[in-house]
Amino acid sequence: MPEPSSQEHIYGLNKWSDLGYSTIDMLYLRPVRWFHRNIVERLRGPSYPYFHRKFGPVKTIDECEIQDQICFYEAEMAYLREKRVDTMIVEILHDRLTRCVAYEGRIDALDKCAKEKDALFESHANWYQKYGEMGVPHSCIDAYMKQKHLMIWMRRHPEVDLKGWATERDYEHHFNRFTIACNILISIVGGLIVNRSIPILKDKFIRAQLWGYDLNKRNSREIKIAESQSVIAADIFLILMFIMIAIVFSEHLHPQSDFPHNKFIEYLAALLSICCMILLGFADDVLDLRWSVKLLFPLIASLPLLLVYFANYHSITIILPKPVRPILDHQWNLAVFCTNAINILAGINGLEVGQSIVIAISILIFNFIELQVNLMSLQLDMKTSFNNINQCLNSDSHFQSKINFNQHELYCLTLRRLYIHLDDGLSFKHLIEHIPNLE
């Protein structure tokens, strides 16, 4: 009788071992798993992290009492921790997309890294929707008020895709940071070019008899000072502005984008006004015109810009304090005043440039303050008994009692005036889409 082979022997051992394992599993392990799944887990309830078993979650800001400063502090710390976590998630997803593009190559990355790209864009949109447009120094109260007014706006505009809007605004936010960086770089380069070009070209102006004496210094009759040097700075400024316009509108060049023709025409009209003023200023240096003629130059130069504003907005008025509106409620007068207020001081050393620097710094500070304006601007100082801000936001709503209306009429009128000023002010155009139609 032939002996069994080694393979048949191993097969027999595996068969008996499998039978033993299944018997042990049926007698000992399966009852334990059934008892744990059907009895223990049902009695224990949902599982929580370890620290939640003893200590409950921290209260959010809307659950805190008015005088409970400890609750405010805990809610603020929890909000900051959550913001750091969300920021780290965005950074991790950005790192994943960068690694995927580096591994797959830029040609194939569009298809092979689509999952990472969608995850990053969605995370960016969520982060911007929750933490964006509140400025750098903000708290959990600011975030809570933003969500409150955002919910009011969503109820009035249910047709708007909030996720798509947040993605678009997040892209605009990052593109604005890019344009600001380009603007700073171009400004530095322009200053260096002007500083280098004036010593090189001043002899050409002197040979063209465009020179004078510095009357504010002693023994200056022997030194000829080149005049009309502002033409050099103005020409370099125009060239750099042409480059900057190309950068700003580069995001609208692809076929699927709606090109903002009105905004583009405003930029071109502004540059045309600057060109006209440069030409008229150079003509003044060459022909030595009288002041009665030079007063009309800014009005002529501002005509292209005023015509474009009137064509786009059907108005050329600006928001001014109420007492001075009858006197200064004409933008063409403002253009004449601003230009000649600086030009009339050109004969005093340093005063014209110093005045321009002060004006530039004041505009920079004003714009920085206005960038902090957000949905918190709608948080009015109302009484404790009047908590329903929807009655102010809804123009069709009326207060139930005359006493209550007289008590809160000032707040609602303030809110409506705020909307009117935001609608007319050019610095607040980005806030209009957040505010419902009040009128």
TrEMBL record:
Top enzyme class: transferase
Task: Give me any GO biological process, just one.
Answer: dolichol-linked oligosaccharide biosynthetic process
Query: Transmembrane ranges?
Result: 231-252, 264-283, 295-320, 332-351, 357-375
User: Keyword Glycosyltransferase on this protein?
Assistant: yes
Pathway(s) where this gene product acts: Protein modification; protein glycosylation
Reactions catalysed according to its record = a di-trans,poly-cis-dolichyl phosphate + UDP-N-acetyl-alpha-D-glucosamine = an N-acetyl-alpha-D-glucosaminyl-diphospho-di-trans,poly-cis-dolichol + UMP
Q: Which superkingdom heads the taxonomic lineage of this protein's source?
A: Eukaryota
Q: What is its main location?
A: endoplasmic reticulum
Query: What cofactors are annotated for this protein?
Result: Mg(2+)
This protein's record includes keyword Flavoprotein? no
Spell out the subcellular localization from the entry: Endoplasmic reticulum membrane
Q: Pfam families given for it?
A: Glycos_transf_4, NDUFB10
The Enzyme Commission number assigned here is 2.7.8.15
Matching entries from InterPro entries are given as: Glycosyl_transferase_4, GPT, NADH_UbQ_OxRdtase_su10
Q: Which GO terms describe its molecular function?
A: glycosyltransferase activity; metal ion binding; UDP-N-acetylglucosamine-dolichyl-phosphate N-acetylglucosaminephosphotransferase activity
Q: How does it sit in the membrane?
A: Multi-pass membrane protein
Gene Ontology CC annotations of this record: endoplasmic reticulum membrane
Q: Keywords of this protein's UniProt record, alphabetized?
A: Endoplasmic reticulum, Glycosyltransferase, Magnesium, Membrane, Metal-binding, Transferase, Transmembrane, Transmembrane helix
Q: Which family does it belong to?
A: Belongs to the glycosyltransferase 4 family.
Q: Which PANTHER family match?
A: UDP-N-ACETYLGLUCOSAMINE--DOLICHYL-PHOSPHATE N-ACETYLGLUCOSAMINEPHOSPHOTRANSFERASE (PTHR10571)
Give the protein's biological function: UDP-N-acetylglucosamine--dolichyl-phosphate N-acetylglucosaminephosphotransferase that operates in the biosynthetic pathway of dolichol-linked oligosaccharides, the glycan precursors employed in protein asparagine (N)-glycosylation. The assembly of dolichol-linked oligosaccharides begins on the cytosolic side of the endoplasmic reticulum membrane and finishes in its lumen. The sequential addition of sugars to dolichol pyrophosphate produces dolichol-linked oligosaccharides containing fourteen sugars, including two GlcNAcs, nine mannoses and three glucoses.
**Name of this chain's protein:** UDP-N-acetylglucosamine--dolichyl-phosphate N-acetylglucosaminephosphotransferase
Q: Which organism is it from?
A: Rotaria sordida
